[in-house]
């Protein structure tokens, strides 16, 4: 199995929404196709991938470094003993001549290609990626379904409390029982009114609501906000402070008894290790949201899970950011705690297979080879042109 071509394109996922840090008016993603000479069922195997939302398309990095390195690698150097592409060996080829540390956004470029390589490998074997992962790393055990929650509640020009409630109601109507909303962009009293509006839709049950600050608060603001929302018993309090400030997390964790969640902006197993070592997080309640598509892909995510295990953390504490099918395969195949979902934003990259509805906040995986992009029409329409010259 040899790589014969790698194609990439930049696609927009812009929208008018905003969180406490950024708006998404110019957001883009890279989409790649890794074309191989292996033919299965009369079709050449093509691995497809894209980067998750929140980081821009890394086209320069892809074209200048990572695609050329993958194409320059000797086929036998990136194959396993079965003659198929080995994502671990391909990862090493891509990262040749890259110094440690300072991960920047090269982790996004590598993540895009890593996703496509796993898609190609699973297609070469004729199995869904979740099945491949369960067989290889979990003795064949795959979860029947993954827990997912509806991430939304963005700030949007002119959006009042009624619109926020309507949005949350529509998630419940679509089978979600837990929802997430953005906080931290407006004064505390306004956010409390927004939270209480959403809680009124959830029957007052705070365990069905997550709030996300996107790293906006200072430690003092985070403590103040935590004290204000503690009585609601929220499902979790996400990215309260800067994602790289371990000491601030540790300090906050001494004053906030509920679940904290963070990790979507940590892009390597070393960053994850620092968080676990120094961030004061608690393996019995806190949630880790590393996004494999942004953080060097699944090869690196497996290292991150190993770091967690060695520090006494279960994979069930992981609920990746990103709302994409790649992380959903990983959640089901490797037994994570679930996955984010964006029912209304980041289309067509967010969301899961078309024919698989969310029921009771859980979603099953389709039984199609690879990651399953072909079972999601709107997304496959963007990817398909890359399959052919
Ligand atoms: Mg978040």
UniProtKB/TrEMBL annotation:
The gene is tarD. Transmembrane segments: none annotated. The record marks 291 as: Increases basicity of active site His. The record marks 53, 180, 340 as: Transition state stabilizer. This is D(-)-tartrate dehydratase. Its cofactor is Mg(2+). The keyword Transmembrane helix does not apply. It comes from the Bacteria. Substrate binds at residues 19, 53, 99, 154, 180, 238, 264, 321. The keyword Calcium does not apply. Keywords: Magnesium, Metal-binding. Binds 1 Mg(2+) ion per subunit. It comes from Methylobacterium frigidaeris.
């Amino acid at each position: 199995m040899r790589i014969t071509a790698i194609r990439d394109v930049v696609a927009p996922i812009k929208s008018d929404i905003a969180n406490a840090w950024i708006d998404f008016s110019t957001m883009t993603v890279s989409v790649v196709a890794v074309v191989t000479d292996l033919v299965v069922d009369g079709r050449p195997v093509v691995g497809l991938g894209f980067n998750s939302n929140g980081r821009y398309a890394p086209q320069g990095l892809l074209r200048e470094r990572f695609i050329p390195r993958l194409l320059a690698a000797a086929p036998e150097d990136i194959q396993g003993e079965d003659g198929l592409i080995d994502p671990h060996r391909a990862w090493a080829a891509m990262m040749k001549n890259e110094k440690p540390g300072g991960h920047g956004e090269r982790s996004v470029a590598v993540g895009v290609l890593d996703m496509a390589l796993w898609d190609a490998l699973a297609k070469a074997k004729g199995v869904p990626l979740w099945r491949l992962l369960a067989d290889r790393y979990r003795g064949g055990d795959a979860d029947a379904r993954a827990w997912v929650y509806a991430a939304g509640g963005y700030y949007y020009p002119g959006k009042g409390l009624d619109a926020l409630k309507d949005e949350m109601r529509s998630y419940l109507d679509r089978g979600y029982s837990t929802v997430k909303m953005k906080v931290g962009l407006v004064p505390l009293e306004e956010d409390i009114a927004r939270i209480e509006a959403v809680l009124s839709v959830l029957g007052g049950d705070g365990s069905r609501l997550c709030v996300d600050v996107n790293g906006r608060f200072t430690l003092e603001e985070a403590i103040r906000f935590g004290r204000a929302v503690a009585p609601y018993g929220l499902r979790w309090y996400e990215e309260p402070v800067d994602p790289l400030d371990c000491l601030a997390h540790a300090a906050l964790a001494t004053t906030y008894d509920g679940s904290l969640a963070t990790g979507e902006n940590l892009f390597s197993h070393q960053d994850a290790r620092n968080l676990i070592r120094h961030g004061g997080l608690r393996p019995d309640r806190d949630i880790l949201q590393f996004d494999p598509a942004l953080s060097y892909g699944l090869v690196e995510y497996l290292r991150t899970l190993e770091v967690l295990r060695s520090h006494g953390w279960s994979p069930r504490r992981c609920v990746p950011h990103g709302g994409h099918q790649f992380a959903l395969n990983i959640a089901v195949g490797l037994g994570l705690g679930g996955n984010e979902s964006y029912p209304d934003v980041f289309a067509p990259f967010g969301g899961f297979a078309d024919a698989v509805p969310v029921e009771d906040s859980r979603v099953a995986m389709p039984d199609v080879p690879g990651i399953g992009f072909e079972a999601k029409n709107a997304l496959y329409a963007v990817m398909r042109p890359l399959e052919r010259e």
